[in-house]
Fold each of these.
Amino acid sequence: IDSNFDEYDGTGWDGGATVLYGDTPASDSDWSCRPNAPPIAAKVLETSKTPGPVNRERAKEMAMSDYYMINKQVLVVKKDNAADYADPEKIKSVKIAVESGSAGEDAALAVTDEKNVVSAELQLDALLEVLASTADAAIIDGVMAAYLTNKADSDFNKLVIVEGALDVEDEYYSIAFRKGSDLAVSVNDIIKGMKADGTVKKIADKYGLADVLVG
């Protein structure tokens, strides 16, 4: 393990996989195990290559690193339609795209009927559903949404977060490890060192994520 956390992606550490997997980029990982991470729990993998928000199920099945970033589920729509969502009742009748099995899906089911929920494989796919007008809105991680909708060279900047549209609690990003693994302790030490020497703040500033860092 080294301390080569070098970039963020929309979910947190883009360089996080470098610490655990050499040159394997986090964005190429297959987190089909996201809700319960069975490969990790079954000891096939030592750790997930992609960080994600902690929930009770994951915490029971896996060892977790310290929290490093705050997240919240947010509603994302086309900028041209954003004014329509000033009415909080609007969300109850529109098609909402979500990543299947995600916290976003839970948030969608809390505000609308299951028939209005469009399941997608990934959060990016949920946003693509909105761009393609096959869904009216998407509910995804706020950290990822803020990063993508502010990218000037991306079609995602045609989308916008509807602030305050969802009544949801804060979530926290962590890195998951096989239950009983001692890697969580090592990674925590690395992250603490990077916070102390200013590396984490420098990376967060670069990607506009300083406001959601923990500690």
Amino acid sequence: MKDNIYMDYINNNPDSPESRAKRRKKHKMARVWAFVVFFAVIALIAAGLFFSVKAIINRVSGNISTATNSSDAGNNIIAEVDADSDDIKDTLEDLLGGEAIIAPPEEIVEEPEPEELFETWLDEKISAMPIEERILGLFIVRPEQITGVNTVVQAGEGTRKALV
């Protein structure tokens, strides 16, 4: 019995050259299998991406060609919207327990901006002016030209006398 224990130790010695060779071979095979599995997974992912992109392109180009080639493409879209609205009505009737009445949306009235209001007011005033006033409105007179002063800071008695 003592010999069997000793022989098992010799045969299973982790430091023996045979055990090292077996371990190296085992590790080498494990690395080979790891590379094979890794590249197989990469190939599957690439194939999946390729076919997904191809399917998306076909679906998009099919929708575009159907919409452009069909003479009643607009009618198809309207029919789809009507079918959807019927489904919505049915769902609402089920939820409410009665007939659902869907009112058409109210038209949105946009109020003009203050700038637009000012421009229309200004256009009305200018169109009401005689041609002479329109021409005179083209000339700009600075206060310095009226009073004869180099720089006018504030209008006062001098400006009033110059205007009269």
Amino acid sequence: MEITILGLSLFFRIPMTKDFSANLAACFLAAAMLLTAATATLAQNAAPKDRNAVNANTNASSMMADSPLTFPDKGPNPPKYEPDLTVEEMPVEQDYFLFASPARSLAQINKIQAEMPPGEFTLPPTDWKYLKSTRKKLRKGGDLHILGLGDSIINDIMRSGWIAKLREKYPNANIKATVYVRGGGGNRHYREAGRIQKYLVPLKPDLVFIGGISQQQDFEGMKDVIDQIRAELPEVEFLLATGAFGNVDPRDPAALAVAQHSGTSPYGKALREFAKNEKAAYLDMTTPWAEYIRSSGLHPHLFYRDRVHANEYGEQILSKIMLAFFKS
């Protein structure tokens, strides 16, 4: 007997006995388990055109044990606030997304922040050493183009509307932002097939923000991406960030300390050193994100739209972290 699930063909020999139905059910269960194993390493998809309907990675999460919410097997829970701005989208290859930011107005951002559960976090240090041009443009005025590069976590950060808040904070600067993302998108994807030269370089960003939870500690790929960009745009500055959200419980410091995208894990320490060597700024997003959720006293899933990604409230935690980093 052949069972095909999402293009994966599996063959089972089922004896024609009185237990045929039970054997058939067992085969379907085995097929589902094999499919889960085959897809377990696939990271989450980046947001499609509605910027919010994301296909979630449904791997087991320790947070589900006491979660007050349930999530669909595919896709997010419905948003309370759809992004209220229409953003420009640019042509790009399949499975990648290239669009302008912000996707939320200041009025909507302020409304969400006013009603979201309160929390606190330690302000991250602003690493201006390698962001001198960015700082000058923010404070004294000038054109500043920020480009977010990475996976759907970068998508969520940029969709949060923090760019709108940055414009509000620095009214003298002419701030533009673009997002180039792929589901599970790490530097191993962007370094290939001339994507940097075809899609990123023509946009001429001044600051490239690289982060997310899908880098897989690929520092070779990250260096290649940085080198490719600098070869074409030698004046560009870089901000390298650790991950936030994902399916690791922020209430569990021990789990964060071994998560492959965490600022409190060996990856975070290695990324900090890598950034220093590459003359790039560094931002640990994990620590303030976890501190905010812990201080709220609420279950983390109240800030999630699916098992991996932030909802509107979670996005605003990310926005607050970004604004805190760019404090004057």
Amino acid sequence: MGIMRYCPKCGDITIPSSTKCTFCGHDTLETKYTFKECLEDTSIRKKIKEEYIDNSPEFDEELAKKREEENDKVIHGSMTKEEKTVLQDMGAIPNNNIPKCPKCGSTAVSTGARGFSIVTGFIGSWQTVNRCGNCGHKWRPKG
């Protein structure tokens, strides 16, 4: 899935294909962490900050604060829905709509699988079923 990258200047943590920082334009550098690890373990971002960003001689505290302020604007709704979706797809901001397994919390979920449900002895219906790729748990999504 690729190696996570970070900006040594503003501290942005970004996806594997981003060789330039989307905030300040500085070259990004690779970490030892994969994109998959970052998706599965929310503490990875903190580890990247501690291991790479905090030790960078290029790190600019003021620029980092400005980036955080811009991120806060996005998270608190001052961007259009389309702009927010694009940034979520890029991995620049978290997507809180990612389904998680209710049993183990994994995000390795296949959605939209269909299963047949017997309503009565003679009538059945197809229903959407989610399946966890980690523990195998199956459940119907709410809504």
